[in-house]
Amino acid sequence: MPRRVRMGMVGGGRGAFIGAVHRIAARMDDGVELVCGALSSDPARARESGGDLLLAPDRCYGSFMEMIEAEGARPEDERMEFVSIVTPNDTHHPIAKAALEAGFHVLSDKPATLDLAQAKDLRRIVGETGLLYGLTHTYTGYPMVRQARHMVRKGEIGAVRSVVVEYPQGWLATAVEESGQKQAAWRTDPARAGAAGCMGDIGTHAESLAEFVTGLSIDELAADLTTFVPGRRVDDEGSVLLRFAGGAKGVLHASQVSAGCENNLSLRVSGETGGLEWRQTEPNTLLVRSLDGPALVYRTGSGYLCDRAQGASRVPPGHPEGYLEAFANIYREFADDVRAHKDASGPGEVGPEASVYPSIEDGVRSMAFVEAVVASSRANAAWTRLDLD
Fold first, then answer.
1. pTM score, whole prediction
2. Does the domain made of 143-315+364-385 have the CATH classification 3.30.2090.10?
3. What's the rounded Cα separation, in Å, for the pair 48 and 291?
4. Cα distance between residue 369 and residue 210, in whole Å
């Protein structure tokens, strides 16, 4: 067994949802060890939360800067090796910047930053430091999403013509942020979430999935954003027309006010000779269509899948795998790359392909998408190019 990679976490303390998900994912393959944390913006709560997780008292820090400075002073074989960021969007950039400049790799919850300017600055810092940076766009870790990616790149459906991606939720169909619900409160606050609400929160997941599977980049878009809940300061639903490099077209719809919907992310890719369909609510199935043959059902864990999809599965066919396992695949690949970086032996690998978890470039693309969506909607859905320079 390879050694465990040492992780420090910022955010994710008492009352947080996504922090616990990250910790489960990190532990799943026994390749990552949480050694320290600054688990809340409140110093006392941060230390108490560290105690909840049985961290050593002297490694339960009151702030992320305290953690970075103290860990940097520890012997190399004891200090944390990477920082997991699980805080609201407005703190992603300063935490990642401080960690990278202190010599620590970073794995961050999405989106990369609050806005595009910060994302570009972070890209510069990652390039200058030569350190690893990853984003937990969870859905890129699903085995059948990776199978779809493999099939598109191998030309098994021909050149891509159209992409339809949808992500409806219903949890913000009412003004739950006014009740003090913590997750809703910051996600509907533009100072903490950014200029886009729904599109920044889950629209970026849809954008990431579409580009990850197809390998195509969105060049320009036309967006119509809406705020349905009175008094809400950010969008809670939106529809976007997409134009991809190379001529493919697409439609992206995201909503957090679709009453009764859970996390119904879905993707349909159509090519010259066939198509693929995947749904997050049935993640172990990939539907494969052809021009003149029957539709085929590909299933997780099967021997006919590509190496990448098989490497992303942990149990035999018929045993459900889902969200936590997909999250864990990103952590496993990132930990492999941290070990490889330390050994100066190049990026980690699973089978014949290099690690494919989202990078800072994907983070910049997502923030360019958000900025273009907001600008387009304000201009009555005018076609708007993504600013990636």
1. 0.95
2. no
3. 59
4. 12
Report d(CA 106, CA 81) in Å as an integer.
9
Q: Which amino acid is at 325?
A: E
Q: Residue 273 has which token pair?
A: 């000779």
Q: Quickly name the fold that domain 5-135+342-347+351-358 has.
A: Rossmann fold (3.40.50)
Amino acid residing at 167: Y
Euclidean distance between CA atoms 106 and 280, whole angstroms:
27
191-244 confidence digits (pLDDT tens): 999 999 999 999 999 999 999 999 999 999 999 999 999 999 999 999 999 999
Domain ranges for the chain, please list them: 5-135+342-347+351-358, 143-315+364-385
Cα gap 34→61, rounded to integer Å = 13
* Residue linked to tokens 């739950």: 176
Q: What is the pLDDT of residues 297-323, one digit of tens each?
A: 999 999 999 999 999 999 999 999 999
Report d(CA 288, CA 286) in Å as an integer: 6
The Cα–Cα gap between 126 and 128 comes to 6
